[in-house]
Amino acid sequence: MKRVTTMTMTLMLDLDDTLLDLSTDIFVPAYFKKLGAFLEKRINPGRLIDELLAGTNLMLRNERPDLTLDEVFSNHFFPAVGFERAELQPEIDRFYDEIFPSLKELTAPRAAAVELVEYAFERGWRVVVATNPLFPRKAIYERLRWANLAPEKYPFALITTMETSHFTKSIPAYYLEILGNLGWPAGPVIMAGNDPQTDIDSALSAGLPIYWIRPDGGKSLPGLVDMPQGELKDFRHWIENIDDDLLEPSLKNPDALIRTLQSTPAILDSVMRSLRPTDWTVRSQPKEWAAVEIFCHLRDMDAEVNLPRVLTLIAENDAFIAGRDTDPWAEAREYIKQDGPAALREFVATRQKLIGTLQSLSREGWDRRARHTIFGPTGLQELVGFMAEHDRTHVRQVIGLLDELHKMN
Questions:
Q1: pLDDT tens digit string along 80-131?
Q2: Domain 1-250 adopts which CATH fold?
Q3: Which tens digit of pLDDT belongs to each residue from 227-245?
Q4: What is the arrangement of strands in the sheet containing 319-321, beginning at the earlier edge strand?
Q5: Fewest CB within 10 A of the end CB: N or C in the chain?
Q6: What is the distance between the alpha carbons of residues 386 and 401, in angstroms, rounded to a whole number?
Q7: Under 8 Å CB-to-CB from 337, ≥6 apart: which residues?
Q8: Do the beta carbons of residue 264 and residue 390 sit within 8 Å?
Q9: SS3 at position 184
Q10: What is the C-alpha separation between 375 and 319, in angstroms, rounded?
Q11: Alpha helix stretches (DSSP H) within 9-68
């Protein structure tokens, strides 16, 4: 029986060893060797590899939402090898333009991958290349060309790269940052990839449905036996017949709630970087908020409502929580005249405190109860769920505003 699609699917696809046949054990040493040889007149190859690995490890662990992975890597790498970025970056860019393409011979395209992507676009789905963003845009786009999925040909909704991503797949907020950057679209979502940890476990922690792409001819692994799985060629048949309701994200458990809250400042950081100074106070409609007002609202909500409520529930049994009407703050506090980037910095600082507090809770802590003037009897997990939905509402608002600004420019 064919599936009945009522809403647009968001399909996230891993790249290496999913869309492209690429053995990391063969590819990475060859990549290091070629990069080391290309830059050896500037940097000792051994030192280069050591600092590449150190910078990569920093990216893998990064949870700061105000630094892109490119910034995390560059803040370590260039000082460590003794060069200003402006001096060495042109040489690195030339490597990716002239030498990196020769690594294509270590990879092979997969016909099933092209068929799957073209099928998804024919169905009108959003297709995201959800590759671990440990490489710059040039390298990731080049690997897509090797897979016969050139980004110049296929209108991918998003391709994750180190220049724009704040988290790697090791941090489940990576997946929710993707959805936020798409405007938190409604409807079914599926992540398909080959890596049991970063593609499957991490996406599950973020609350996303998954499909494990087993190696061709490979068998299931312990812990994955009950997961949807198969070879790449099997995935299309499976997704054609699965009920949409089974592919709705589940974002109400503590892990997914924390990662949702963690993704919001990262998404706002991306928005901030795309705004011109004159964009901050532009309203798409007379009664709609401008970007600076949205940023200030989220900052004050965390500082004066969200964090205090969480701390109250932790400190008091059956705490009483008063509802607050915060929308009038925009006019009363003259958000439109405030500094948007400064508001984001303050929001990030408070949000990090909120996330740290929530991460420290035991399972029993999430079950703490309260009485709310509007919601009535409630609990910490439900209140954090309201915070996450509030985030999603304003992320949609600011992404929509960004789209309108791009149309105006």
A1: 999 999 999 999 999 999 999 999 999 999 999 999 999 999 999 999 999 9
A2: Rossmann fold (3.40.50)
A3: 899 999 999 999 989 998 8
A4: 319-321, 369-372, 376-379
A5: N
A6: 23
A7: none
A8: no
A9: coil
A10: 13
A11: 24-38, 45-61
* pTM attached to this predicted model: 0.95
DSSP 341: H
Contact 22, 143 (CB under 8 A): yes
Percent of the chain with pLDDT over 70: 98
Which of 270, 263, 93 shows the shortest CA–CA distance to 164? 270
Please give the Cα distance from 274 to 198 (Å, whole number).
29
Asked whether the beta carbons of 39 and 156 are under 8 A apart, the reply is no
Q: Which two tokens stand for residue 241?
A: 């017949």
Contact criterion met (CB below 8 Å) for 165 and 185? no
Domain 254-408 in CATH 1.20.120.450? The answer is yes
Q: What is the pLDDT of residues 138-193, one digit of tens each?
A: 999 999 999 999 999 999 999 999 999 999 999 999 999 999 999 999 999 999 99
| Domain extents in the chain | 1-250, 254-408
Residue with tokens 């789905």, as numbered in its chain: 125
* Rounded distance between C-alpha atoms, residue 266 and residue 68, angstroms: 8
